[in-house]
Amino acid sequence: MATPHNSAEKGDFAKTVLMPGDPLRAKFIAENFLTDVKCVNEVRGMLGFTGKYEGKEVSVMGHGMGIPSIGIYTYELFNFYDVDNIIRVGSAGGMQDDVNVRDIIFAMGAHTDSNYGFQFGLPGTFCPTATYDILEKAVNIAREKGVRYHVGNVLASDAFYKKNCDEADRYRNLGCLAVEMETVALYMNAAEAKKNALTILTVSDHLYKTEELSAIERQNSFTDMMEIALKTAIKL
């Protein structure tokens, strides 16, 4: 059954879907890591693919930029396509001194300046978190690979360019590892649908250092993160 944003039919997606923001990164993963690949969605250029990794069916699809965009795509996957697990594979801006460009971050929880959670009508502040089982599996795989990683909270922000705001300094002071723009919607949608989610990030730049990766490097060079996510997916 197609949706306004997805032409796939029910059953076209595997139970576990990897989701990068950039649809071309989804294409890169499908072409370089999966076998028996089938393109299942091209609506609005948001490419989605299903194939096999080490013999197990896995899907990969872009989710676009920002909380509203990932909110739409993950809601539809969880609620209309019977997807059980979503692993976001994205980029982030580092915030702590011991976080370096190309490090991997596992987002245990997500702070936000977004009003996305208002729709749930909750009193107080809802704290969306990753699914521990997926987080534990992914961290163990990263440890076995010997990659440099961090586990902790990230900030999911509504704005990439901000005017006259010391928000980053305040979150950095409270131990926030990095800033990105999507995880809070993924984790909230997973909680509401009783499904599972994890965000894995590669640090592409740093708010307090000068090093950063180019757009092409972001698209094509996050292979450690991709492999960790895929090896996690086949364990679910």
TrEMBL record:
PANTHER family the UniProt entry points to: FI09636P-RELATED (PTHR43691:SF11), URIDINE PHOSPHORYLASE (PTHR43691)
Taxonomy, superkingdom: Bacteria
Protein name per its UniProtKB record: Purine nucleoside phosphorylase DeoD-type
EC numbers: 2.4.2.1
Function per UniProt: Catalyzes the reversible phosphorolytic breakdown of the N-glycosidic bond in the beta-(deoxy)ribonucleoside molecules, with the formation of the corresponding free purine bases and pentose-1-phosphate.
Biological source species: Butyrivibrio proteoclasticus (strain ATCC 51982 / DSM 14932 / B316) (Clostridium proteoclasticum)
Signal sequence, renumbered to the chain: none
Biological processes, Gene Ontology terms: nucleoside catabolic process; purine nucleoside metabolic process
Annotated positions binding a purine D-ribonucleoside: 5, 180-182, 204-205
Pfam families documented for this protein: PNP_UDP_1
UniProt catalytic activity: a purine D-ribonucleoside + phosphate = a purine nucleobase + alpha-D-ribose 1-phosphate; a purine 2'-deoxy-D-ribonucleoside + phosphate = a purine nucleobase + 2-deoxy-alpha-D-ribose 1-phosphate; uridine + phosphate = alpha-D-ribose 1-phosphate + uracil
